[in-house]
Inverse folding.
């Protein structure tokens, strides 16, 4: 083998083993697991049942997003090895995992969406979903993205096994899926704890917990990352109100079909947040350039992948939904456009959050949510076909990306006109997190931009 061949092989191995590749594979595999579960639901429950399940799962994702942003992002950026911070993280994880699922379950039961037993299984599944997500975020924070593949694989196997066992003794119904999800998330949590570094598995006393310090960062992040699932929940309500549950089932089937592209962007976003937190000493201008490159690569990849999925709808669509209903091809293309629009926003919002601009980042997300939902509501009211829903939702993230770059990051760049490396212990008025207990140990060496460079 020639020297050049060995060099190329070495670069390929470096790319495959990089943190960015791990993040991409982990989120893609999680998408595949979710895809498989919802394909089963589409076959067994039909379009109407899939629409109802998607609404309930959307609520679970919404409550989990709050915990993931509040606790998960806080443990990524703050010093989780400090006793007070760690105690505060534990306290908030327990409170959010209890309150959110119980309130959501009671609300769905009181509205007649779920029966009492279904609401109970829903609350259990939602609680375990949130705790398991905290375990996943610990692995993300330590850049052990490849271990997430093992966690999600175990969870998927247990979910499918639970569905098979229940199908042998009774009929599969909506509550059956909540039971299976609860079992899968419990198994995933056990594996996540086992695969986490020993230093990350220890629990501490809640005495002297820094509850306010964790909340000062986590509350803004929890609110920010919950915007997207809140938009999806509102979208589902609008489609059901204007069209029907069956129409929502078709829109959701198209979204499930494109889910790998959507979740891959979220996975890279989690990696970027950890890398930005690690590289706080680098000049902001260098990080903005990295975010720009990441945005272009992610958006282009999402569009290319979406076009391939759109072309394959006639072949793959019937396998996804069975004979009960079909996936609208135009809606598949719309979700690809939405994924690309999200990619223009995600890297910049992650950078703003890592630099302590949580309030500004939240303002951006609220603005893009308002734009998306207002436009969607108006267009649906005047007769827009429900199949065009994702195209309208894409308007908001694209606008949010422009706002983040021009209003949030541009002033920060003007405050740092020279590309000098700042001291890791310095504080500035533009960085309210400076001086907090921040992650100081390096978490890895591979950046997304470096991985993309090697891929080329």
């Amino acid at each position: 083998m020639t020297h050049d061949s060995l060099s190329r092989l070495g670069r390929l191995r470096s790319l495959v083993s990089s943190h960015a590749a791990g993040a991409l594979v982990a989120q893609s595999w999680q998408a595949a697991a979710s895809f498989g579960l919802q394909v089963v639901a589409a076959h067994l429950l039909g379009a109407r049942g899939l629409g109802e399940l998607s609404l309930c799962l959307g609520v679970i994702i919404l409550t989990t997003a709050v915990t993931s942003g509040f606790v998960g992002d806080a443990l990524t950026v703050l010093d989780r090895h400090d006793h007070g911070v760690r105690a505060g993280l534990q306290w908030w994880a327990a409170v959010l995992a209890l309150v959110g699922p119980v309130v959501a379950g009671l609300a769905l039961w009181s509205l007649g969406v779920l029966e009492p037993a279904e609401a109970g299984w829903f609350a259990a599944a939602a609680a375990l979903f949130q705790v398991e997500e905290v375990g996943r975020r610990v692995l993300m924070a330590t850049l052990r993205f490849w271990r997430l593949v093992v966690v999600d694989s175990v969870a998927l196997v247990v979910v499918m096994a639970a569905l098979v066992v229940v199908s042998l003794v009774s009929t599969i119904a909506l509550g059956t899926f909540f039971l299976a999800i609860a079992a899968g998330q419990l198994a995933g949590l056990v594996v996540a704890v086992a695969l986490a570094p020993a230093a990350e598995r220890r629990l501490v006393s809640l005495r002297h917990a820094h509850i306010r310090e964790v909340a000062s960062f986590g509350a803004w992040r929890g609110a920010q990352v919950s915007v997207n699932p809140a938009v999806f929940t509102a979208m589902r309500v609008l489609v059901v109100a204007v069209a029907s549950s069956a129409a929502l089932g078709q829109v959701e089937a198209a979204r499930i079909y494109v889910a790998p592209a959507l979740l891959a962007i979220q996975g890279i976003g989690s990696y970027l947040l950890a890398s930005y937190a690690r590289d706080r000493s680098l000049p902001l201008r260098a990080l903005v350039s990295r975010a720009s490159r990441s945005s272009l690569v992610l958006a282009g990849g999402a569009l290319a992948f979406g076009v391939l999925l759109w072309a394959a709808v006639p072949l793959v669509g019937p396998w996804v939904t069975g004979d009960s209903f079909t996936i609208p091809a135009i809606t598949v293309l719309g979700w690809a456009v939405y994924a690309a629009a999200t990619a223009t926003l995600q890297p910049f919002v992650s950078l703003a959050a890592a630099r302590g601009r949580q309030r500004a980042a939240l303002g951006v997300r609220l603005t893009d949510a308002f734009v998306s939902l207002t436009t969607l509501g108006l267009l649906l009211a005047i007769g827009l076909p429900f199949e065009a829903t994702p195209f309208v939702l894409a308007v908001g993230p694209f606008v949010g990306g422009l706002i983040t770059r021009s209003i949030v990051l541009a002033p920060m760049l003007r405050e740092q006109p020279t590309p000098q490396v700042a001291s890791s212990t310095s504080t500035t008025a533009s960085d309210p997190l400076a001086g907090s207990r921040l992650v100081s140990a390096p978490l890895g060496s591979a950046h997304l931009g470096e991985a993309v460079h090697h891929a080329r």
The CA atoms of residues 43 and 375 lie 33 Å apart. Residues 14-415+432-455 form one domain.
